[in-house]
Specification:
Layout: H1 25-41, E1 45-47, E2 57-61, E3 67-78, E4 82-89, E5 92-102, E6 104-110, E7 116-122, H2 123-136, H3 147-157, H4 169-190, H5 199-202, H6 204-227, H7 235-260
Helix pairs in contact: 4-6, 4-7, 6-7
């Protein structure tokens, strides 16, 4: 029987890889190990990452109490009806969270013989599969909470320095810059008609300098902040570069407009 990993084990933060070699003995061994662990712990099911194998495999017992294996599963379709679901998970023990789920989903997956399959699930089965598909994508129950409820959860349950939270100080820095640029654009328009707004034209060099330094500060701080989270360094890092470039372009455009209005 394999050990079921529990949060904050760093292995659970990985995004599971696609199974490509279906003849690999290790894949079949992993499936059998999942079945044994499910039986020994009297569980409905597990995904491979929960026993330390970062592969997109889910094994569970269906409504007939028979094992079903889903390899490379993904949600192919979903209903428009979203329900409240009170959930817990073996990898996040002693916690029950109320999250939003689709009441019906259609899952596309492959069986052990590499055949493409479709599964329509509803009720508890749909909720279970959504939770496990979240996990093979590196997600947790608390990732389904809004920012306020996440803060409340972390405050009561503990601090997890290795997670990738949905809220950052860098986002507040960027939001303040965005508001500033919007106000500046409005004042540039008003400067064509009202004298009080002309300061954005007269002091465009100073304003440009402050905003440019603001973007540089954002980029360095954002890089520092995301480095603290193991699961954020790649996607968030690329996003920081792109975002900084976009805002720099907007600042330059506003500067050129103000220069032409002088």
């Amino acid at each position: 029987m394999a050990k079921i990993l529990t949060y904050p084990d760093k292995t659970l933060l990985q995004i599971s890889g696609i199974v490509r070699d279906f003849n690999d003995p290790f894949i079949k061994e992993t499936i059998e190990e999942l079945k044994k662990t499910i039986e020994d712990n009297n569980l409905k099911g597990l995904c491979a990452i929960q026993i330390g194998v970062p592969k997109r495999i889910i094994v569970y017992k269906d409504k007939n109490n028979e094992f079903r294996t889903l390899i490379n599963p993904g949600i192919f379709g979903k209903s428009s009806n979203i329900i409240d679901s009170l959930e817990s998970d073996e990898s996040l023990p002693n916690v029950k969270l109320n999250v939003k789920r689709y009441d019906k989903i259609k899952v596309m997956y492959q069986d052990i013989d590499k055949n493409d399959r479709f599964l329509e699930a509803s009720g508890d089965e749909a909720i279970f599969l959504q939770r496990k598909i979240d996990m093979i994508n590196g997600g947790y129950l608390f990732d389904r909470l809004n920012k306020k409820r996440q803060k409340e959860f972390f405050k009561s349950y503990g601090t997890y320095g290795d997670t990738c939270p949905s809220y950052f100080i860098k986002d507040k820095i960027l939001k303040a810059l965005r508001i500033t640029l919007i106000i500046q654009a409005i004042l540039l328009i008003l400067s064509l008609f009202l004298n009080f707004a002309k300061f954005v034209v007269n002091y465009n060099h100073l304003i440009f300098g402050v905003e440019f330094v603001w973007v540089i500060f954002y980029a360095f701080y954002a890089k520092y902040e995301t480095k603290k989270y193991k699961n954020c360094t790649s996607c968030q890092g690329a996003n920081i570069i792109g975002t900084s470039g976009i805002y720099t372009a907007v600042i330059i455009l506003l500067y050129l407009i103000s220069f032409l209005l002088r």
